[in-house]
Design brief:
- The complex is a heterodimer of chains A (about 140) and B (about 110).
- By secondary structure, chain A is α+β, with helices and mostly antiparallel strands.
- Chain A contains three helices and five strands.
- In chain A, a hairpin with a 6-residue loop joins strand 4 and strand 5.
- In chain A, helix 1 runs antiparallel to helix 2 and helix 2 runs antiparallel to helix 3.
- The two termini of chain A are about 15 Å apart.
- Chain B starts with a strand and ends with a helix.
- In chain B, strands 1, 2, 3, 4, 5 and 6 form a six-stranded mixed sheet that branches.
- Classes of the chains: A alpha+beta (about 140), B alpha/beta (about 110).
- At the A-B interface, helix 2 and helix 3 of A face strand 4, helix 2 and helix 3 of B.
């Protein structure tokens, strides 16, 4: 990857009502960076919502004393979102096994979040920092 | 983001304005369940004014579909934009719901 610059760096409280605002801000930056419109409107908004939702609900347990930080860096090739929470860490790999589109899971009300993140982003990684950071990469 | 509910004949029509995501899905769920409790059987959710839906929003639609069906009713969807259509196809929920291109076609289909 070439030189990168920070396009967004914000912190939000552990409250899901903050998700929409920060996602719209990220989508706006995405459009300003001339990423194809569909990637900004669909891929970024849905995947980032899922990552923030996980960080707030699973990571931080909606604790008012904890925050979630969202940092986006941009290169010529991609936008990379790092979502940091302050929870005990979790194992993203464990979620890989479940296929929400299989007949036995199709009627389930849950279990589509990480699936959608993986479908809509070019890469979804968990950084080696104790399980508190998810990195989403969207190629331009 | 908001939800408005109106009746067209015996069909309860719900318009979703804005996003259907983790922050507001319970509001939609409760509004539809209230109508179900009042005896509504035919439900149409119109997404013509909707931006995007996340996994928890999709989960609420699945939940409502099951609850409405348990009461002998039916939930149908209309006006999915290209982004929403893609989401339903990715998750295969397009196989679970009857989805119409327009509100009129959906209303006629009941």
């Amino acid at each position: 990857m070439g030189r990168s610059r920070v396009a967004l760096d914000v912190e939000i409280p552990s409250d899901v009502s903050y998700i929409e605002g920060v996602v719209e801000l990220a989508a706006k930056r995405c459009r300003e960076l001339r990423v194809p419109a569909r990637k900004c409107s669909l891929n970024l908004r849905v995947a980032l919502t899922e990552a923030l939702s996980n960080a707030i609900l699973r990571g931080n347990g909606s604790s008012h004393e904890k925050v979630v930080r969202i940092r986006a860096t941009v290169t010529k090739e991609a936008i990379v979102f790092d979502i940091f929470d302050q929870g005990a860490g979790f194992d993203l790999a464990r979620e890989k096994r479940r296929d929400p589109t299989s007949p036995e899971n199709l009627l389930s009300e849950e279990g589509r979040g990480i699936f959608l993140m993986r479908k809509l982003m070019d890469e979804v990684e968990q950084l080696e920092d104790g399980g508190n950071t998810v990195r989403l990469t969207l190629r331009r | 983001m908001s939800f408005s509910i109106n009746k067209q004949g015996d069909v309860v029509v719900v318009d979703v304005e804005g996003q259907l995501i983790v922050g507001n899905r319970q509001e939609l769920k409760q509004k539809v369940l209230d109508e179900l409790e009042r005896g509504g059987k035919k439900f149409l959710i119109d997404f013509s004014q909707t931006g995007y839906i996340d996994s928890s929003g999709l989960g609420v639609l699945v939940s409502l579909s099951k609850k409405i069906r348990e009461q002998g009713g039916e939930l149908r969807l209309a006006n999915l934009n290209d982004d929403l259509q893609t989401l339903f196809e990715l998750t295969k929920l397009d196989t679970l719901f009857q989805i119409s291109d327009t509100r009129e076609r959906a209303l006629e289909s009941f």
